[in-house]
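yo

u said u wanted the structure for the complex thing, so here. seqs first:
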Amino acid sequence: METRAKERTWTVGELADELGVTTRTLRFYEAEGLITPQRAGGNRVYGPRDRARMRLILRGRRFGMTVAECREIVDMYDGAESSELRQLTTLLARLDEIADGLRRRQADIRRTLSEVTDVAEQCRGRLAELRG
Amino acid sequence: METRAKERTWTVGELADELGVTTRTLRFYEAEGLITPQRAGGNRVYGPRDRARMRLILRGRRFGMTVAECREIVDMYDGAESSELRQLTTLLARLDEIADGLRRRQADIRRTLSEVTDVAEQCRGRLAELRG
DNA sequence: TCGAACCTTGACGTTAACGTCAACGTCAGG
DNA sequence: CCTGACGTTGACGTTAACGTCAAGGTTCGA
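structre next:
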């Protein structure tokens, strides 16, 4: 099985544009250990895997995850194939914690959203009344 | 209708404890215009209304809203009783924008959660396998 | 009366997550 | 050959959201 199918690659600038971030962000995340692009004579070369990780990270950032939290999660995606029973156990415990945290945030967002739409409804009511 | 039913009040320290934040946070939010407690001879006196606003704000903070965004929203809760048609219209438009943003975050969180639970499931699978 | 436990304002420190700038290398086009 | 567009590292700047003092005022129980 040939694992070296010629995958598409990106330069920093290209990937930054595609993701809607700056090159500084990509270099920053690399320094923080969230991504590890290949190098072609000094220059960074990003593959689909790096791109996928970046999208996960950016998605997390949008709802308040810190860069450190993002790193922890993407690292876990890799560690899940581990074969050591002890590792898998602690990993699983942590994953459940994280899932709980996400569910809490989900509840928080849901409440806020329902309040905001309520206020919007009041607005529509007042407007209909005023125009009546 | 007596609007001055003696409502419960809090000092900074009390409210901070109850909300799980520091007094610095309360003073900071006040300086930023998110809450405006009464004063009793220099000392701040928080009422149920302040407490309620704080809970909304803190809930928003938990899923990544900035303090500025929180202020915008709590301000809208007040402005919704406005009687000026023009104001209500722009307010409503903004509310809809905000709701859209919240729904996007909701989708982001939902996807992340489902991925995390997927990985957890893989872990459980590997564990069951290892333990035979 | 005195210290402990509150409160006040003001000012400076800290951390995360980048932005910005300098100084340099490389490579294609005119 | 030279400019312009891209890349590199390193270092310092910036903003948000507080933390952490310092210096002082009040109040309350021993």
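Residues 11-13, 23, 27, 42-44 of chain B lie near DNA strand C (CB under 10 Å from a C1'). The longest helix of chain B spans residues 85-131.
cya
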